[in-house]
Amino acid sequence: MSGFRSVEAVFFDIGGPLYDDENFVRAVLSAIDDLRAERDLPPASRARFREIYDETRARQHGSLRGALAAEFLGDTGHRKLLHERTGPYWTHPEGTLHSDVLPCLRELHGRVRTGVLANQEATVLEPLRRDGVAPYVDVWAVSGIVGVEKPDPQLFAWALREAGAAAGNAVHVGNRLDTDVRPARALGLGTIWVLRGEAPPEPTQQQLAEPDAAVRDLSTLPDLLFRLPAPGAAAGTAASRPEGGPL
Ligand SMILES: [Mg+2]
Which pTM value belongs to this model? Predict the structure, then answer.
């Protein structure tokens, strides 16, 4: 017993870990402005948007779309409408793949099965192919393809089945506590929290104790992946959490 998790599969959230979350910000703001124009309202205040966005990032729970619908469309109930209208704008333009993604995937290639596990439109396959990520992806757990969204455990279970791995031999890499770390951990996967995009800029110690490890980027991930505590070890405690890079 090495005390480390034996890792056979790793799943990556897309927005945050792979692509810049500002792609979603641009899309949702475009949809909000369209919906406001249809109601003869001026474009949304960017300053107020950032306040709500940062509040949601700091809290790590609660629906961002719901809060935006309430603030800018006057009704939380317009959350679904906002989601639908965001979809067509939600693209990942060239140059928005984080520069540490391909080096990380190349290092992991052949050592573990790799998947994406994300709430994204099915069209996300296009940028992943264009940017050279697709050849490294064995499992495509994309909500727009599978029909289930995180944090639903079904999407994680689907990814595990496709990878042929038990939860105890898998790790999820995501940038949110509510839709990545908590549901993955509840199923028994190891968890690495990537602190960029929708993650809080200054996470609390309590938040940092939730995943097995937290990193600012993917540069240390290939080594870190094989130094996570074994399932059943006191994961999430400061003593057992490997150094995940400077925080
Ligand atoms: Mg994300």
Answer: 0.92
